[in-house]
Amino acid sequence: MTINHHPSDETLLRLAAGTLSAGPALVVAVHLEGCFVCRSRLAKFEAVGGALLDDMPPASLAADLFGRTMERIELDRPQKQRNQVPSKHAQLGLELPRAMRDCEVGPWKWLGPGFKWSKVKIAASQDAKVMLLKGRAGLHLPAHGHTGLEFMQILSGSLSDNRGRYLAGDLDEADSDVDHSPVVGREADCICLAALEGDTRLHGLLGRLLRPIVGF
Ligand SMILES: [Zn+2]
């Protein structure tokens, strides 16, 4: 699998520092599972962060450093040694990434013609704005912009917009400058994991569509 679109260095640095909010952190964790380039880059950022931490008193160490270290160890284990994803997600018709194993994932719900969504709940962060989106092959998604960052990891199929084409394994990080109308590739349905950072809201037709149903 060739991955052409990666999270920004700023995002990886924020993940290493533990300052990326839970929703985007989940999307980036899913990307890291399949992207050796970003895993290596994150390890470098964490090494730099670790060296800085060595100079600080122990009380200043991030409380979740151990948890994040264990997460990395988990990611570095060969795929066959990891546990299987619980079968409760079989209803979605897709194998969920390892990083989502502790998430509560709802059933597909209708959002529009050829367009479905599923709520993703992160146990430790119930207000995180995360969802799976499924678009029919060839579907034109409504034009939209964002007040902040939108993270989208392609799990299957493809999406294109005025900035390029995104295939399975790619992560699209769109900021408030991006106003786009993604189109699902004609070869297959597209499923992606999407998260909005913090108070980010969608505007345009997609925002008006999602807000009353999803609350985004
Ligand atoms: Zn990457």
Describe this structure in words.
- This protein is an alpha+beta fold and 216 residues long.
- It has a single domain, classed as Jelly Rolls, CATH 2.60.120.10.
- It is 29% helix and 25% strand.
- It has helices at 9-17, 22-34, 36-54, 65-76, 205-214, and strands at residues 104-105, 109-112, 115-121, 129-135, 144-146, 150-156, 158-161, 164-167, 171-174, 183-184, 190-196, 202-204.
- Helix 1 (9-17) crosses helix 3.
- Bound molecules: zinc ion (ZN).
What's the layout of helices and strands?
Layout: H1 9-17, H2 22-34, H3 36-54, H4 65-76, E1 104-105, E2 109-112, E3 115-121, E4 129-135, E5 144-146, E6 150-156, E7 158-161, E8 164-167, E9 171-174, E10 183-184, E11 190-196, E12 202-204, H5 205-214
Antiparallel strand pairs: 1-3, 2-3, 3-4, 4-11, 5-12, 6-9, 6-11, 7-8, 7-10
Zinc ion (ZN) is lined by residues 3, 6, 31, 35, 37-38.
Task: Summarize it.
The chain has 216 residues and is of the alpha+beta class. It has five helices and twelve strands. Strands 1, 2, 3, 4, 6, 9 and 11 form a seven-stranded antiparallel sheet that branches. Strands 8-7-10 form a three-stranded antiparallel sheet, with no helix packed on it.
